[in-house]
Structure formats: structure tokens, C-alpha cells
Q: What sequence folds into this?
């Protein structure tokens, strides 16, 4: 379709401004989403019980959250967990490139960049008390414990019961009740 | 005298009805109160249950700040009629979401409504419950519970009470009627019999009553009593005749006696007065000599002192008795009993009575001739007693006292004066002297009342006269008493 | 002495005197505040030997119904009831109380009364008192009414040197009504505004004298209205100030209204209302207290009074107080005055130039806690009284002429424990420029002691003894009144909740003692042995 881009300069400026604002809004919306997802990580932890034998029971040791893949949170996680405790333990965030590091964590977040590597990552978590969270589509069926997604501009999540059973961790029924059933 | 009669039947009925009413009121009220209590308790425990359930359901949504999900949950109270509204607040009491069935209820946006102290007639009460998970408080839920149940229970109870009361009242009235007759009928029968006897004066009638209680006994005794009256009636008639005869005789005698009595009353009064005056003299003797004895005691002897005190006591006693005797002879007299009085002899008598008291003093009495005056002898005597005793008292500190009593006569008046050379008074005080609450000298110097001179003034004024006084300090005082001459 | 009920004077208006008797309702008293020594700076006239302020119960602290009753010898009976209600939400309260008392006081017939009367002598006292108080926030509206009826034939000889028996009646009533409210403009300042109406009337059915030939009936009404504003400020942490102004207008009877009857049994007609004198007064005072350091306090104040009869009076005062943990010492200088009243102005030929009597007093006072349970207090004072009213040389009126100087000492020892409390005190007054170093009516030595024993919460027992030494009496027949020791005891039991019984025996040994006011001792014998049995009941 051809139309005349023969506007005078003021209109041009307005158009540029409009585009810039909407782009910025998009990105803030995006970062807003990850702020909420970051907060949710702590909330999930409230409803989850790690086995007594795991290192989560020792309040001296820190609670370790691992981010696998490209970090979508920016500095949100650090900001949030600088003063916030999980299970009365201080929180350390590590960014994992080598999957071997996964076994140090108590909870990991699999970022969208690792879409194809999900089964592999899950192998590293097998039989260990590590809770996996991801916002990758269909990751729940692949065996991730908690999958987060967007529904009508709201962050929602779903829970994989079998995954919990396998990992010796228990999840409170209240969380299950509240979670959405299908992604 | 006619009394306002309230029949025994009525009294009995009222009493029994009152008892029934009181019992009803007490038991129905108790029932009402306990019922209300039960309903309230039930309502309380139900609301606790609802609050706890709802709060449980809200835990997860509150953790994830999902107010829409919270709303979904609280909306479920739609099906519970007694919950009027639910509101969920943050920990800082700011409203997150609410569901309300009743638009008239105002749910605060900030701060939670606490209706613990709401009155009996409020529409609802609130129940708050904190939403807690793992010791973290996520928020507060507030239920608005309707009090309709309580109101309904009260209305129900009241209706039921009315119904019961009416039935009991009817049954009660029937039974009361039956039972009160057993008591009141015998009494009324007795009354009727008495009325008949008293109106027909026929003492042959006897009453019938054979109940086995006090009324029966009363009836029996009454019959006996009537018999006795019959007998007496007969005797009476005979006696009456005799009396009529005697009466005539009596009337004659009474006339004679009255004349005699009037005379002897007069004699008695003057006798009482002079006797008591004559009795006073010896008493003053005793008192005076006792005092002298006391002063002559060489050394202090307790036993003798005791005897002297006893004598003194007794003489005081005697004086009181004499005073009473004097009062007795004067009781009831209010009006002046005027007569021509030989005032000079009255004055001389008064001086005579004070002789004993003033034995150890040197007093020179100068008494001039004073004509008769018209007055009440009793009151005049009292007035002059006061004036003369004052003269004696206020010259007590003088070595040689001179008291002069005389008179000045004018065409209209007789003015009697009493002059002494005693302690006197300041002339500027003259008007106040006859006032009631003013005493010139304190009790330190001279004993006295405050009313003596006021009394004198009053007495003289009643005679249509006047009083005045003149004095000079330390030189003496003169009291003037003026009487109007009797007009022919 | 100045007597106040709820801060309003209850002294009799015409004479300014404090009226003794049983007409005060002591069961409705919340507390009694006493200021010792001359205190006219704040209180004005009559506060010469001290001030007693009876504070009646308030609705907020005395709710519910209470009943007190007692009965005893000499036909003594009393019933008192009070009710209080307080609503905390609206801060409104009401308290009412009423008391009726009757007693025939004692036996004065025959030997008990030195043979002045026969055994049928008539001697009674009948008292009624009613109090009501309504409080709403800081506003209080109150009324206190007292009425005392008693026989007077014992006091006045009416015929020569004899007392007349008969039905005399002294019927006097005291009414105080007031409205008070507080304003607190800042946290450190408070103003109290008080408006009051006082009425002390000798009712016209009073039969003051009975003679051989007549009865004398008297009537004397008096009333006063006033308003005062008192402020208290905390100026700095160390300095506070209390100040006030007041205005009063009084109508006092110039004399008694009198009527006579024609015989000793006949009652006279109602007396007419006597002429009334009007009087205005205004006064203002200020008093500062300054705390130099924690333990040392210094106060100074002055009062200025203006009255349309006696014009101006000034009464300053000052003091230094030092207090430590267990003891404190005060040095005080105080002045006070007693205003002359119509009674004084109109006596005899009258003297309209009378000035108030003044007292200047310097006192050193200290108290120590020897141990936590043993307290010892002592004070030494020197008083000079000026312008005392005496009769003039020709005995026709009052005049200000007398000066009295005295030195006094008072000591008290108190021992206070939970089960026992005991006290003993002694006073001595020395009039150094009078003959015999004594003055009429004042006993140079007095001593009082008492023990209270509370073994448990059910029983309280008390014994008190008072000793008054011999005193002079300005009376030619009875120049000396003997000394006397009087002992009283009271035992009370708390039975089931809210009911308390008591047995009260006064003057256990039936001691004869007299307070004669310079008159004949015979009529002023103080109460004989009286036994009372009573109960108190409180319902919340």
C-alpha cells in the first residue's frame, strides 16, 4: 500500500515519540513480568517442603537459586533477595552456564533460551531435591515442577504433581488448588 | 363513718391473679433470655467457622497478591444467607477486595470495622480473622454477620409467650374462682348474719358455719357472744330506769360543785404561789449557810466537802421542784388578767425574797409610795423581779449599794423608776439594752441571760406601756417603766 | 477555720463562723483535703488556722447504690443512701445522696446536768443533708444542702439564773449551688471557672428563747452569689504559677426578724423578714513556685481583697522547702485574715470602721522517715495576731485593739504497717505576754493517740484517746475547766460482699468534759458515753 509520507516536521516528531513510548512500554511491561516472576519464586518456596536430609534444613547454609540460560531478570533477583530470606536462609543467585553447577542449587529457573535443552537439564536434577521452574511452553509436560506463563496479562502458573513426587519434595495442597490447571 | 369496702373475694382474686402473673412473667422472661443466649452463641460459633474456612482458602491467592482470585473465593458466601458481606484487607488495614449483598452496609476502605460493642438492635456484627500461613500474616478477612436470627428468635418467643399466657390466664381464672369461694363464702355468710341481727335487733338468730378453720371457730364464738348479749339486754332495760332517776339528782349536785371548784381553783393558784415562795426562803437559808460553812472550813477535808456538795445538790433539786410547781400554777394562761395591783407591796415582797441572798452585803433600800396600777399581777411581778434582781446584781461590786424605787405621776401615766449606784453602762448603749441577743457585760463579770430585759420590755408593752434606761459608767443606772393610767 | 464543701465555703454568712454539729454527710465524702496554717493567700477570709475542704463523691468513682445506717443509745439513728451513675462513652455522670440523722445527744437531767434541769429536759438534734452532682465532660453542676435542727434551751438561761425547759428549736439551713467548668487552652495551662450561690438561713420556725411568759421566734436569711476564675500555669519546667480573681455580692440580714407570743406554751406568729445589708467584694491573688534544683523549692505569693465594708486587705506569703529521700524541711511565712461580719459591725451601738483581724505566722516544719514504717513530724511556729476584736472601753461596740502573741510546738509520731497502724501527737501553746502564759478557751497541752488493728480483711478495730489539759474560761462562776481524757473505740466487720457492720463506742469512760466558749460550763457538756451499732451496704 502506498501512502504519502509527505508530512511536515512536527508530525514526524510526534510519530517518532509515539513509537518510542510504545516500545519503552513494551520493554517495561516485559521487565514488569519478570519482576513478578522473580517474586513468585520466593512465594513458591513457601509452599514447598524440601526433604529433611537436604541442605535446605541447615539454616546456616544459604538458599541457592540458579538461573540456567540467558538471564531474563536483569538485576531484579539480586535486588529482591538482598534482604529477603527463603526458609529463613539467606539467598544466593548463581548464573549457570555449566550444567554441572545445577546440583549446588535448591531451585533452578530455566530460561527460554534453553528451550531445547530442557530434558537434559532435568536429567541433572533427577533424584535430587532441586525444584525446577520455567516459563518455556510445554515445559510442564517435559517434567518441570512449576511452569509459569501469561494469561490475559497476568502471570499464572501450573504444577506437575508427578515431578514433585519424584524429587522427594512436597508441595502444599493450597498451592495446587490455586494453580491453573492447564497451560 | 363509711369505709371504702373492697370485698374479700376481690382481694383474694387479686392476690391469686397477681401470683399467677408474677410466675408467668418470671418463667417466660427467663426462657426468653436463655433462648437469646443460645442463638447468640450459635451465631458466634458459626461465624468463627466461616471465617476460618474462608481465610484458609485465601491463603494461596493472598500469597500471590491475586485479588481477583480472592474475590472469587469470597463471592462463594452468596449462598450463605447470614453472611451479609465479606471484605479482605492488607496487614495495614487497607481494603483489597470486597463482596457485599447489602448496599446499605458501609465497608471502610481504611481500617476495619470492629463491632464488638454494637448494641442489641444493630443489623449485624463483624468477625475478623487473620490470614496466616507458616507464621506469616498475609492479610485480614472481615465477615459481616447478620443478626436477623436473633431478632427472629425474640419475636418468636414473644408470640409463643402471649399464646401461653392467654391459656394460663383462662385456666387460672377458672381455678381461682373455684378456690377463693372456699375461703370467702364462709366469711360472707357470717357477715350477712351479723348484718341481719344488727338491723332487726333480733338476738335469737344464730349463724351457720361449720368449716374446719378459724372462720368456723369464729362463727361458734359469735353465737356464744350473741347469747350473752341477749341476756344482758334484758338486764339493761331494768338498769335504765334506775339511771334516769339518779341522773336528775346528779345534775343538781354538779351545779353546786362547779361553783365550788371555780372558787377553789383561784384559791389553789394563789396558795401554790405563796407556798412555793415561802418554801424558797428556807431553801435559800440552807444554800446560803452551806456556802458559809464551806468558806469557814479550816482545812480541806474531803469527807466534809462531799457532805456539803450533797447538801448543795439536794437544795438545787428542791429549787427545781419549786420552779416546776410555780410553772404548774401558771400553765395555759395566755390572756392578761387585769386587775388593780398594789404594786408597792409586790415590790416589798420581792425584796423580801432576796434578803437571804444579800445577807452579807450592805444594801440600802429607799422605797417611795407608789399608787396602784392596772395590770396582770403575775406578769408585773416577773418584770419587777427581773429589774430588782438586776439592780442587786450590778451593785454587787460596790461596798455600799443604794437602790431607790419611786415614781413620777403625770395626768396620763404612772412612771416607776428603779435607780441603783452600781456599775452602770454607757448611755450610747441605752437603746440596745433591751435587745434580745445583746449582753452588756460578759459572763466573766456578771452571770446572766440575754433575754431578761427584752422580756421586761415585752411585758410592759403588752400593758400599753414603755421602758427606757439611763446610765453612766461606774455611777449607776436608772430604769423607767411607764404605765398608762386606767381610764374610767 | 475555713470549711469548704467541693471548694465552696460553708461557713455561716452572718457571723462568718464554722458551724459544728452532725449535719455533714460524711458517708458521701470522697476525700478531705487539709491545708494547715494560715492560708488566706489562696482562700481569702477565715483561713486563719487552716482550711478543710470536704470533697463529695463523684459519679465516675462512686457508682451503684450504697446505704449506711446506724442506731445507738440516746435514741440515735441515721440512714444515708447514695446512688451514682456514669456513662463512659458520653462522659456524663450523676450522683445523688441523702442523709437523715436524729439523736437526743445525752442525759442532761438531774445530776448529769449539774441539777440545772429535771429529767424531762428536751435536747435533740435532727439533721438532713442532700447532695446532688451532675458531671458532663469538664462541666460540673452541684448542690449541697445541709439542715440542722436542734434544741437550744440548754444554752440560754431564760429566767433569772434558771434554764427553762420546753420545746425550743434552732433550725438553720445551708445551701451551696455551683457550676464549674475547666478550660485547657494549652497543655500547660488550665483555667477553672466557678459560679456559685450560697444561702445560710435561720428558718422562721426557730424558737430561740422560752421564758416564763413568752416564746421568742426568730428569722434570719442571708445569701450570696459569686464567681471566680482560677488559673494554673506551668510556665517553665521549674516555675509554676497559680492565680485567680473573684467577685462576690452578698445580702445579709442586719438583725434577726423577731416575734413574741403571750405564754410559754404558745407559738408566736411567723417573724417578718429583717432588713438586708448589701455588700460587694472583689479579690485577686497570685502565687509563684520555683524549683531551684530538684530538692529545693521556693514559693511566694500575695493576695489583694477589696470589700465595700472593710476596704482593702493584703496577705502575702512565702516559703522555702527542702526535701531529700527520707526527710524534708520547710520554712514558711504566712498571713491570713478574718473579715468582720454584720454580727460584729452592728453589735451594740455599732462600729462601721472595723478592720479584719490578721495573723502573721512564721513556721519551721520538718518530717523524717526514721525507718520505712516510722514517721516523725515536728513543727515550731510563732504567731502574732493583730487587730483582734474586743469590746471597747465603754462596752458598747467591738473594736480592733487586741494583740496576741504565741509560740507553739507540735510533734507527731506514726507507725504504719499492714496489720497495725499507730500514732501519737502532742501540742503545746505558750502565750508569752499573757498572765499565766495562757489564754481563755485554749488548752496549753493536748495529746492524742490511736491504734488501728486490721488482722484480716474482715475485721478492723480502732482505739483513740484524746487528752486536753486544763484551760481558762472567761466566766465568773467557772473560771477553770478541768482537764479530760476521752477514749473512743470502733470495731467493724465485713460480712458477705458489700455489707459492713460496726460497733462504735464513744467516750467509753463517760468522761465529763466541756467546750464552753467562755460561757457557763453547765450547758456545754460534750457527748456522754454513746454506743452505736450500724451497717453499710454497697450495691454496684
A:
Amino acid at each position: 500500500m502506498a501512502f504519502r509520507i509527505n508530512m511536515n516536521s512536527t508530525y514526524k516528531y510526534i510519530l517518532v515519540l509515539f513509537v518510542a513510548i510504545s516500545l519503552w512500554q513494551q520493554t517495561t511491561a516485559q521487565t514488569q513480568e519478570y519482576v513478578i516472576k522473580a517474586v513468585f519464586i520466593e512465594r513458591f518456596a513457601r509452599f514447598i517442603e524440601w526433604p529433611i536430609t537436604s541442605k535446605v534444613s541447615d539454616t546456616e547454609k544459604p538458599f541457592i537459586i540458579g538461573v540456567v540460560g540467558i538471564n531474563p531478570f536483569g538485576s531484579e533477583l539480586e535486588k529482591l533477595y538482598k534482604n529477603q530470606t527463603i526458609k529463613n536462609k539467606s539467598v544466593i543467585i548463581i548464573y549457570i552456564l555449566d550444567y554441572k553447577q545445577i546440583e549446588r542449587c535448591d531451585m533452578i529457573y530455566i530460561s527460554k533460551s534453553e528451550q531445547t535443552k530442557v530434558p537434559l537439564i532435568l536429567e541433572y536434577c533427577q533424584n535430587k531435591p532441586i525444584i525446577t521452574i520455567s516459563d518455556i511452553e510445554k515445559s510442564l509436560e517435559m517434567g518441570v515442577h512449576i511452569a509459569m506463563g501469561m494469561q490475559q496479562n497476568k502471570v499464572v502458573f501450573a504444577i506437575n504433581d508427578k515431578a514433585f513426587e519424584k524429587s522427594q519434595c512436597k508441595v502444599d495442597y493450597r498451592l495446587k488448588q490455586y494453580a491453573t490447571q492447564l497451560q | 363513718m363509711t369505709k371504702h369496702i373492697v370485698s374479700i373475694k376481690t382481694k383474694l382474686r387479686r392476690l391469686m391473679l397477681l401470683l399467677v402473673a408474677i410466675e408467668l412473667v418470671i418463667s417466660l422472661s427467663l426462657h426468653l433470655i436463655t433462648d437469646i443466649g443460645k442463638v447468640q452463641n450459635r451465631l458466634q460459633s458459626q461465624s468463627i467457622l466461616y471465617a476460618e474456612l474462608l481465610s484458609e482458602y485465601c491463603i494461596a491467592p493472598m500469597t500471590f497478591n491475586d485479588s481477583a482470585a480472592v474475590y472469587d473465593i469470597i463471592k462463594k458466601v452468596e449462598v450463605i444467607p447470614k453472611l451479609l458481606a465479606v471484605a479482605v484487607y492488607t496487614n495495614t488495614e487497607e481494603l483489597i477486595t470486597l463482596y457485599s449483598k447489602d448496599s446499605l452496609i458501609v465497608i471502610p476502605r481504611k481500617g476495619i470495622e470492629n463491632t464488638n460493642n454494637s448494641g442489641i438492635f444493630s443489623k449485624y456484627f463483624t468477625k475478623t480473622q487473620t490470614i496466616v500461613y507458616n507464621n506469616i500474616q498475609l492479610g485480614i478477612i472481615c465477615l459481616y454477620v447478620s443478626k436477623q436470627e436473633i431478632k427472629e428468635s425474640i419475636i418468636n418467643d414473644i408470640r409463643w409467650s402471649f399464646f401461653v399466657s392467654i391459656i394460663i390466664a383462662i385456666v387460672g381464672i377458672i381455678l381461682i374462682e373455684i378456690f377463693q369461694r372456699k375461703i370467702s363464702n364462709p366469711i360472707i355468710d357470717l357477715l350477712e348474719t351479723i348484718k341481719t341481727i344488727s338491723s332487726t335487733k333480733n338476738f335469737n338468730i344464730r349463724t351457720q358455719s361449720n368449716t374446719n378453720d378459724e372462720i368456723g371457730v369464729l362463727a361458734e364464738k359469735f353465737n356464744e357472744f350473741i347469747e350473752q348479749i341477749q341476756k344482758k339486754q334484758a338486764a339493761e332495760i331494768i338498769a335504765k330506769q334506775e339511771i334516769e332517776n339518779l341522773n336528775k339528782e346528779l345534775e343538781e349536785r354538779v351545779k353546786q360543785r362547779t361553783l365550788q371548784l371555780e372558787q377553789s381553783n383561784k384559791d389553789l393558784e394563789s396558795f401554790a404561789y405563796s407556798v412555793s415562795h415561802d418554801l424558797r426562803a428556807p431553801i435559800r437559808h440552807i444554800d446560803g449557810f452551806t456556802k458559809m460553812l464551806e468558806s469557814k472550813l479550816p482545812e480541806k477535808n474531803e469527807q466534809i466537802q462531799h457532805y456539803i456538795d450533797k447538801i448543795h445538790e439536794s437544795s438545787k433539786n428542791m429549787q427545781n421542784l419549786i420552779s416546776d410547781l410555780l410553772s404548774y400554777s401558771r400553765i395555759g394562761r395566755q390572756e392578761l388578767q387585769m386587775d388593780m395591783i398594789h404594786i408597792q407591796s409586790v415590790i416589798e415582797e420581792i425584796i423580801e425574797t432576796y434578803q437571804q441572798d444579800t445577807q452579807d452585803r450592805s444594801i440600802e433600800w429607799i422605797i417611795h409610795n407608789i399608787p396602784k396600777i392596772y395590770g396582770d399581777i403575775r406578769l408585773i411581778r416577773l418584770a419587777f423581779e427581773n429589774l430588782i434582781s438586776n439592780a442587786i446584781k450590778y451593785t454587787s461590786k460596790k461596798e455600799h449599794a443604794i437602790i431607790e424605787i419611786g415614781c413620777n405621776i403625770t395626768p396620763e401615766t404612772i412612771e416607776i423608776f428603779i435607780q441603783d449606784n452600781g456599775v452602770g453602762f454607757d448611755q450610747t448603749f441605752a437603746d440596745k439594752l433591751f435587745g434580745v441577743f445583746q449582753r452588756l457585760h460578759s459572763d466573766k463579770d456578771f452571770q446572766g441571760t440575754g433575754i431578761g430585759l427584752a422580756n421586761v420590755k415585752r411585758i410592759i408593752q403588752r400593758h400599753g406601756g414603755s421602758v427606757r434606761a439611763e446610765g453612766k459608767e461606774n455611777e449607776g443606772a436608772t430604769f423607767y417603766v411607764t404605765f398608762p393610767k386606767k381610764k374610767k | 477555720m475555713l470549711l469548704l464543701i467541693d471548694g465552696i465555703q460553708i461557713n455561716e454568712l452572718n457571723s462568718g463562723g464554722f458551724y459544728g454539729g452532725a449535719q455533714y454527710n460524711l458517708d458521701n465524702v470522697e476525700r478531705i483535703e487539709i491545708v494547715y496554717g494560715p492560708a488566706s493567700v489562696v482562700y481569702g477570709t477565715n483561713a486563719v488556722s487552716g482550711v478543710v475542704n470536704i470533697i463529695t463523691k463523684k459519679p465516675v468513682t462512686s457508682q451503684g447504690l450504697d446505704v449506711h445506717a446506724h442506731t445507738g443509745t440516746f435514741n440515735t439513728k441515721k440512714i444515708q443512701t447514695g446512688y451514682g451513675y456514669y456513662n463512659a462513652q458520653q462522659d456524663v455522670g450523676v450522683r445523688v445522696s441523702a442523709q437523715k440523722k436524729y439523736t437526743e445527744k445525752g442525759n442532761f437531767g438531774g445530776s448529769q446536768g449539774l441539777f440545772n434541769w429535771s429529767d424531762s429536759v428536751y435536747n435533740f438534734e435532727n439533721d438532713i443533708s442532700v447532695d446532688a452532682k451532675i458531671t458532663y465532660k469538664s462541666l460540673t453542676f452541684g448542690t449541697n444542702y445541709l439542715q440542722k435542727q436542734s434544741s437550744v434551751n440548754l444554752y440560754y438561761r431564760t429566767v433569772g439564773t434558771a434554764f427553762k425547759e420546753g420545746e425550743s428549736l434552732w433550725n438553720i439551713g445551708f445551701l451551696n449551688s455551683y457550676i464549674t467548668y475547666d478550660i485547657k487552652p494549652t497543655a500547660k495551662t488550665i483555667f477553672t471557672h466557678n459560679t456559685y450561690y450560697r444561702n445560710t438561713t435561720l428558718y422562721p420556725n426557730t424558737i430561740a428563747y422560752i421564758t416564763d411568759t413568752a416564746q421568742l421566734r426568730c428569722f434570719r436569711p442571708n445569701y450570696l452569689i459569686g464567681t471566680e476564675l482560677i488559673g494554673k500555669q506551668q510556665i517553665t519546667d521549674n516555675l509554676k504559677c497559680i492565680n485567680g480573681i473573684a467577685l462576690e455580692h452578698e445580702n445579709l440580714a442586719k438583725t434577726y426578724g423577731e416575734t413574741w407570743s403571750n405564754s410559754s406554751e404558745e407559738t408566736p406568729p411567723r417573724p417578718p423578714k429583717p432588713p438586708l445589708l448589701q455588700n460587694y467584694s472583689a479579690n485577686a491573688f497570685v502565687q509563684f513556685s520555683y524549683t531551684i534544683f530538684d530538692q529545693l523549692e521556693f514559693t511566694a505569693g500575695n493576695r489583694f481583697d477589696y470589700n465595700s465594708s472593710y476596704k482593702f486587705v493584703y496577705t502575702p506569703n512565702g516559703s522555702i522547702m527542702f526535701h531529700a529521700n527520707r526527710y524534708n524541711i520547710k520554712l514558711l511565712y504566712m498571713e491570713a485574715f478574718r473579715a468582720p461580719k454584720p454580727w460584729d459591725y452592728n453589735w451594740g451601738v455599732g462600729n462601721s470602721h472595723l478592720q479584719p483581724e490578721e495573723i502573721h505566722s512564721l513556721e519551721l516544719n520538718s518530717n523524717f522517715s526514721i525507718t520505712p514504717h516510722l514517721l516523725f513530724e515536728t513543727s515550731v511556729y510563732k504567731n502574732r495576731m493583730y487587730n483582734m476584736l474586743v469590746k471597747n472601753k465603754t462596752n458598747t461596740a467591738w473594736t480592733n485593739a487586741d494583740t496576741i502573741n504565741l509560740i507553739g510546738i507540735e510533734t507527731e509520731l506514726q507507725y504504719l504497717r499492714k496489720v497495725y497502724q499507730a500514732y501519737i501527737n502532742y501540742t503545746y501553746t505558750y502565750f508569752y505576754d499573757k498572765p499565766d502564759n495562757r489564754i481563755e478557751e485554749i488548752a496549753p497541752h493536748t495529746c492524742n493517740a490511736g491504734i488501728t488493728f486490721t488482722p484480716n480483711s474482715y475485721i478492723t478495730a480502732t482505739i483513740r484517746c484524746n487528752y486536753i489539759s486544763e484551760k481558762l474560761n472567761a466566766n465568773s462562776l467557772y473560771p477553770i475547766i478541768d482537764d479530760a481524757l476521752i477514749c473512743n473505740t470502733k470495731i467493724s466487720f465485713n460480712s458477705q460482699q458489700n455489707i459492713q457492720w460496726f460497733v462504735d463506742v464513744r467516750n467509753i469512760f463517760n468522761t465529763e468534759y466541756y467546750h464552753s466558749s467562755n460561757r457557763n460550763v453547765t450547758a456545754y457538756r460534750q457527748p456522754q458515753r454513746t454506743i452505736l451499732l450500724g451497717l453499710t451496704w454497697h450495691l454496684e
The beta strands of chain A are 48-49, 63-68, 91-96, 107-110, 131-134, 146-151, 154-159, 170-171. The mean pLDDT of chain A is 83. Helices of chain A lie at 9-47, 76-83, 118-125, 139-142, 161-166, 173-178. Residues 9-47 of chain A form the longest helix (39 residues).
